[in-house]
UniProtKB/TrEMBL annotation:
It is found in: Endoplasmic reticulum membrane. Pfam families: Aminotran_1_2. The gene is sptlc2.S. GO terms for cellular component: endoplasmic reticulum membrane; serine palmitoyltransferase complex. This is serine C-palmitoyltransferase. Residues 162-521 form the Aminotransferase class I/classII large domain. The lineage of its organism: Eukaryota, Metazoa, Chordata, Craniata, Vertebrata. GO terms for molecular function: pyridoxal phosphate binding; serine C-palmitoyltransferase activity.
């Protein structure tokens, strides 16, 4: 039930919170805050130059028990319904084995297929809702209904207008069909057309691609950059080009599926460390150095640490100063996925490196996507010129994928220049500042209402815990009734008992929109009894920071 705790790091100090026990309030080398002991310890020589506040509140015991019971009951009814389908008493609409293949290894019959048939289908109406407008701060949805329990949907012909969009990754509000970015993309469309019909290595390399890559390198503060037409493939196709057999990948347990797929395709050995736990990562690094490869005990060819900037289901931010310190100490490489953090974090909107005030050269491979903060599509990798030249020759995404569409590239160029201020305005900086302000306000209000909210106080990804399976569908439906569009998430995207609603805050949201959404969330929270928070936290770390120093060692 308890996965993480809460931590606040401020200007080189670490505060691990402990709940007050038996009504006794004591302070041990610390101060008392909100009924919790804040123990202060010097943190690794002051790696953190800013406050770092994350909270993962303990799941109440009764909620965890009821959640397990709910899934247990649904599973029992699922087996009953499968029995009825076997005897043709109930019709089954999902893919099943053909009669002539009954003796073969089942192609479809696994737990996830069982889950889809018997649990997901009950609440399927909460996903894949057709949007018929620009995915901005407000959206229009095509109304639909089902007469066969969510197996199929039919449209009513009506449109639900002006739904407040609390689910899209439109962090900086560049998802628009009017304005400078949209006009520039329309001009590029008329000049270049839609597609290139070739790869970058053949006849699909354009001046827009070259301009974009130079701009991305400048934006990130690195020597060179390379762009790709698909964000998912940027991870899944480039990691295999960087590591292979005889290499070791140390991956955070909550990394995105594109990182997981890329690691598996590489053929490298994969070891998992606990989410954002530096002690777990350091133990794996030590073991890797001391023991080497299995059986032969030869040294690993490469050790690659793979982390994300913002974790899209937890709302947490990577402890990048610690990761860089460990990477330097143990001479490993660092792969940083900034899909959700680029544009959304840092005083200049340049991601988690900018957020912590670190040197971009300390990150070996900087990856990110254009699908979120830039309102476009595709991904990039930035780093040294040697790295980028190598990927141009060896990356599958470079050699075999069609070039990025010119209007898409122009949208990225226009929005990135706006963020950098190269368009001659302060619009981009105002968007970055507005996003930070909206994020703090939205998170603070939800916490005040009594919801359990995961993640970092500066993260625009805001998970609100629902837990019970019946409340996944109920929350999504009730919010849509109130003209609020939200994303609800359950297994397999999250652990099976940690279902949640995931809000994505945008700079395009006005205070009036956020207040309207908060008012409806508060009402639905009371209706569905979702206010589980008791504001009790457990310690985040297993041991004090000062047991290990992360200073860089000499060769």
């Amino acid at each position: 039930m308890t996965r993480f705790g809460a931590v606040e790091i401020s200007a080189g100090l670490s505060h691990s919170y402990k709940p007050v026990m038996n009504g006794i309030r004591s302070c041990e080398n610390g101060t008392l805050r909100n009924g919790m002991i804040a123990e202060e310890k010097v943190h690794n020589g002051g790696l953190y130059k800013r406050s770092f506040n994350e909270a993962f509140e303990e799941t109440p015991m009764i909620v965890a028990v009821l959640t397990y019971m709910g899934y247990g009951i649904l599973t029992l009814f699922g087996y009953l319904r499968d029995f009825l389908r076997t005897w043709k008493i109930e019709k089954c609409h999902i893919a099943t084995e053909r009669d002539e293949q009954k003796d073969f290894v089942p192609l479809y019959q696994d737990f996830e297929n069982f889950y889809t048939r018997n649990l997901y289908m009950r609440i399927r109406d909460n996903w894949n809702r057709p949007v018929c407008s620009v995915p901005g701060e407000r959206i229009d949805l095509m109304e639909r209904f089902t007469d066969d329990y969510n197996w199929t949907f039919k449209f009513t012909g009506r449109v639900i207008k002006g739904v407040i969009n609390m689910g899209s990754y439109n962090y900086l509000g560049f998802a628009q069909n009017t304005g400078l970015c949209a006009d520039a993309s329309a001009k590029a469309l008329s000049q270049y057309g839609v597609g290139m019909c070739s790869t970058r290595q053949e006849i699909g390399n354009m001046d827009k691609h070259e301009e974009l890559e130079q701009l991305v390198a400048k934006f990130l503060g690195v020597e060179a950059a390379m762009t790709y037409g698909m964000g998912f493939a940027t991870n899944s196709m480039n990691i295999p080009a960087l590591v292979g057999k005889g290499c070791l990948i140390l991956s955070d347990e909550l990394n995105h599926s594109s990182l997981v797929l890329g690691a598996r395709l590489s053929g490298a050995t994969i070891r998992i460390f606990k989410h954002n736990k530096m002690q777990s990562l350091e133990k794996l690094l030590r073991d890797a150095i001391v023991q080497g490869q299995p059986r032969t005990h030869r040294p690993w060819k490469k050790i690659l640490i793979v982390v994300e900037g913002i974790y899209s289901m937890e709302g947490s931010i990577v402890r990048l100063p610690d990761v860089i310190a460990l990477k330097k100490k143990y001479k490993a490489y660092l792969y940083l996925d900034e899909a959700h953090s680029i544009g959304a974090l840092g005083p200049n909107g340049r991601g988690v490196v900018d957020y912590f005030g670190l040197d971009p050269r300390d990150v070996d491979i900087m990856m990110g996507t254009f699908t979120k903060s830039f309102g476009s599509a595709g991904g990039y990798i930035g780093g040294s010129k040697v790295l980028i030249d190598y990927l141009r020759a060896h990356s599958h995404s470079s050699a075999y994928a069609t070039s990025m569409s010119p209007p898409v590239a122009q949208q990225i160029i226009s929005s990135m220049k706006c963020i950098m201020g190269e368009d001659g305005s302060t619009v981009g900086r105002k968007h970055v500042e507005q996003l930070a302000e909206n994020t703090k306000y939205f998170r603070h209000r939800l916490t005040e209402m009594g919801f359990i909210i995961y993640g970092n106080s500066d993260s625009p990804v805001v998970p609100l815990m629902l837990y019970m399976p019946a409340k996944i569908g109920a929350f999504g439906r009730e919010m849509l009734k109130r003209n609020i569009g939200v994303v609800v998430v359950g297994f397999p995207a999250t652990p099976i008992i940690e279902s949640r609603a995931r809000f994505c805050v945008s700079a395009a949201h006005t205070k009036e929109m956020l207040d309207a959404a908060l008012r409806e969330i508060n009402e639905v929270g009371d209706l569905l009894q979702l206010k589980y928070s008791r504001h009790l936290f457990v310690p985040l770390l297993d041991r004090p920071f000062d047991e290990t120093t992360y200073e860089e060692t000499e060769d």
